[in-house]
């Protein structure tokens, strides 16, 4: 399916200031998920999903607990989930997901990041049709054949199972995310190298060498924005 998920995560986690930035974004996402329903992962599927993702990024328990306690309190902060679409150099396509309490601020900063880094904002639907939503779940300690067997025994349908480095990555429909995780847990697997619902490009492009630095600068500028939670793209990079 194209992406080296473990390599991408390692690169993100190793970028000095990125660790605190990632933790801050998870803190907000956990707060928003906990605020939607009861702040209890047993009864709140959205919160349970975010917490599973947070574990794969080693988000400290103190940050998780603080976000959930804030949701339990009297805070009346409300956030909107927004999606922007745009273009980078040489036909690159990007999707930007944000959580914000100020829509005008967010659209202005996202547009500025595009404009200052060789890109441009697109209208809704201009890019998303070239991506597919997918659940991506990775584990270590088993072969792809073993994973296929246990998923078949659990009667879980998936799109693909691939071995990447020392991990096995399962790609499935978003609605199968919980079923895949449950199948693994029933088989004694509780640690996941990746646990995401993401947007995968239907095809990837390669940029000429002179455009790669510009594109990476655009990605960094978008990911550095406080309101931006995720950035997806269709560029094949040497991660």
Automatic annotation (TrEMBL):
As for subcellular location, the record says: Cytoplasm
Entry-linked PANTHER family: TRANSLATIONAL ACTIVATOR OF CYTOCHROME C OXIDASE 1
- The answer, when asked if Transcription regulation is one of the entry's keywords, is yes
Family the UniProt entry places it in? Belongs to the TACO1 family. YeeN subfamily.
**Mainly resides where?**
cytoplasm
Domain TACO1/YebC-like N-terminal: where?
Answer: 3-73
Keywords, ordered alphabetically: Cytoplasm, DNA-binding, Transcription, Transcription regulation
Q: Which InterPro entries match?
A: Integrase-like_N, TACO1_YebC-like_2nd/3rd_dom, TACO1_YebC_N, Transcrip_reg_TACO1-like, Transcrip_reg_TACO1-like_dom3, Transcrip_reg_TACO1_YeeN, YebC-like
Protein name as annotated:
Probable transcriptional regulatory protein ACFFNY_16410
UniProt keyword Ribosomal protein, yes or no? no
> Which positions make up the signal peptide?
none
Q: Which organism is it from?
A: Paenibacillus hodogayensis
What positions does the domain TACO1/YebC-like second and third occupy?
79-235
Gene Ontology MF: a single term: DNA binding
